[in-house]
């Protein structure tokens, strides 16, 4: 599997947004050009050590030229680990299927939602929005994309074909991915490496929007101000966010205008902690939450469970209610949360 | 006296209701949850007062009947099994929390008070105080834990739980009631010192020199907030250095270690759990930063790092005591679990871990290691733990063999088996200089001339 990367795009680029817009490294156009050329030529560059793996350069590059995937390839080929060895080992071992993991769900029928490694959400995805859905979940369906954070794309490439096969043998035409990272794997990452995906990946936003639209007469606008926490993999597939804004409109919430949203969104910080960048973790969380408070948000809405686990406590302590997107949607339908 | 007469005499002391020689009762007291061979007692009694204990011991001494004091009998190494029959004295009806002196930070309890009861009581009545809570079931008794030199969550800061004793009330084999510490002179139980400290004649003896009926125990400040950081390394040789650095900061409350093959994310790594406490978030953050900073160059070398804990993992780590340990105990189903707690110098951590891997592999058993730093790193408890299935004799035999080898391994690396079962006590006595063993024998003979106190334990 070879990364589709066209160096001509970079040679003709005039802005080098991939690096100049980076929120964790400071580069002007000149130095960005120099460093991206080093990356293209597979040379040593500080980028490989300093990259915090926030994925944002994938969104900043409007040519779709996958600068972040290139960085991770080079990190691995040069043996640069963004995190300590035992931490990387834990993450790699964590996703190895065991005898307890289900490989095939014989009774599952479309619409089917893949819950990734978040079984706890089976209890949550209930009510009108989820009537009649089936779930697949567990290590046999884990997308593996997290290894981009650890400079180990080879693990993804090694395991992904089997994961795709595990899903495909169910014969689904479409699979809804609850975890944004899974959706981005089966779209952006698979495209970048020419991996065939024999089903249509559907983002959870699209599913929620269509369901809400069908239930529009039952929706009671919430009339609250929310801050939205973008997650890292959303940078790989930003187009689906059109559904997010339509969802917010449907359920009557206002996404507050704040500094750290959209392209300038800050990472939840979880991966910085895993990479042992503790001061950065604290600083980014502080700035992010202060920004939410300043924007007078009443809720902080999460799409990614990992972001929620990382940031929810800090958000709560700042007087803002943390909530997952599907929970917010259920509230708009008058349902009671557990 | 014949057996019937002894029964009658015991019933006159504690009441008919609290003495039994029924098969079903004797069955329960004939064993503990470990692998030691069961032996049946002749009677089980449940006294309510020290005077009742006194009368039982006087009767036993006169009739040369063995007495075995028992708390919850959870040592897992057969320390309350009546190897020579006799009377098991179950102290759990003596469960009064007699006094808390808040300003002097101590509590006085009867011998049957459990860790669960004391913890719940302090949380409700004195939320700014706590005692050192071991990773034992809540039904384990506090005094039982003192008698085996147990360790709790404050062991890293203050040492073995037995070093937190401020006073003892003991019934000697003669039936005399003896008090040790400030409580010998007045009503305060604040300190054993500055007397000569005869408490050592009783602590760690498993009841072979006297029956402790009351204890004064130090309490410590309980902070409002508690958190955990988990540092992981692949190379076990790094563990002593990590512990040294973290203890040097003096920021940690408790430091524990763990290693196990399952789940897979824990395989081939060692985890060092570092607990921090504070009354304010700022205090926690300050401590956290110093601890991270102390390990910065190990982190930068990529040889170790702090885990990011998912909420459910963090909850499990912060539980006191940790219920996950009971899950491990039942991992093979059938509810069997045995461990050898080795008290070792921290330098020997990687040698001990290597021994554990070898023993587990040789005996084809699964395993778990947990450890706890004691007293700023002066030593640590290193457990070799093996689950087994009680319904599967082969599984029991494998675990039995593994645990015996673990005791031997402990001695080979220069450690001391903690709360060893009687056969291992005998090995220890043989290994120590003859003069030392003779001294122990003389102490025991002096305090128990008729050899009635928990015979089989520390018998030279």
How would you describe what is shown here?
The complex is a heterodimer of chains A (338) and B (460). With 338 residues, chain A is α/β, with parallel strands linked by helices. Chain A contains 15 helices and eight strands. In chain A, the strands form two sheets. Chain A has a four-stranded parallel beta sheet with strand order 2-1-3-4. In chain A, strands 6-5-7-8 form a four-stranded parallel beta sheet, with helices on both faces. In chain A, α10 runs parallel beside α11 (241-250). Chain A starts with 6 loop residues before the first helix and ends in a 6-residue tail after the last helix. By secondary structure, chain B is α+β, with helices and mostly antiparallel strands. Chain B has three domains: 3-91, 2-Layer Sandwich (Uridine Diphospho-n-acetylenolpyruvylglucosamine Reductase, domain 2); 93-221, Uridine Diphospho-n-acetylenolpyruvylglucosamine Reductase, domain 3 (2-Layer Sandwich), CATH 3.30.465.10; 225-418, FAD-linked oxidases, C-terminal domain (Vanillyl-alcohol Oxidase, Chain A, domain 3, 3-Layer(aba) Sandwich). Chain B has helices at 3-14, 23-29, 50-63, 115-125, 142-147, 155-158, 239-249, 281-294, 296-300, 311-318, 324-329, 349-363, 393-412, 422-431, 434-447, and strands at 19-20, 43-45, 67-70, 87-90, 97-101, 106-110, 129-130, 165-171, 177-181, 211-218, 220-221, 225-233, 254-259, 270-278, 304-306, 335-344, 369-374, 379-389, 416-418. In chain B, β17 (369-374) and β18 form a beta hairpin. The radius of gyration of chain B is 22 Å and the shape is globular. The two termini of chain B are 29 Å apart. The mean pLDDT of chain B is 96. Classes of the chains: A alpha/beta (338), B alpha+beta (460). Chains A and B meet through α7, α12 and α14 of A and α8 and β15 of B.
